[in-house]
Structure formats: structure tokens, C-alpha cells
Design brief:
This protein is mostly beta strands. The protein contains 1 helix and 4 strands; from the N terminus they run ββαββ.
């Protein structure tokens, strides 16, 4: 099952939420998207029927600033 694009740490906004794209596969090449997602440890899989591809990606979580950790 070949990937359509190489992994290049691309960021894509899906529903206004940022994700790191880990892999892109054609829909017809994927039999079990949930199984692939779990096997590689990715957090999300999105099916884009219009383009005929699956996006496998990880959610980008917001960083939290901790005031106590900063030097004075």
C-alpha cells in the first residue's frame, strides 16, 4: 500500500484545528483505516471523499505557558 506523498511534517487545518499530516493514502488502498491508525500510533484518520484520499495525522496540542518555570 504505497503512500501518495512522503512524510514531510506538513500542517493542515481540518475543521479549523491544526494537525501534523503523517501519511496520505488513496481510499481504495485502505481496507482498515482504524487499524492503520492504531498500528502506527497516529491520533486521527480523516477520509476526504472529494479528493479520494485518507489523511493520517496527529493533533497539534496548544502549548501551555507555566510562569513558575521561567527564570527571573
Amino acid at each position: 500500500m504505497p503512500r501518495i506523498s512522503p512524510i514531510r511534517r506538513e500542517i493542515k487545518y481540518i475543521n479549523k484545528i491544526p494537525y501534523f499530516i503523517k501519511a496520505v493514502y488513496r481510499i481504495d488502498a485502505v481496507k482498515d483505516a482504524n487499524g492503520i491508525k492504531k498500528y502506527f500510533g497516529w491520533s486521527h484518520a480523516f477520509k476526504n471523499v472529494k479528493e479520494g484520499i485518507y489523511y493520517f495525522c496527529d493533533l497539534i496540542e496548544d502549548a501551555e505557558l507555566i510562569d513558575d518555570a521561567l527564570p527571573v
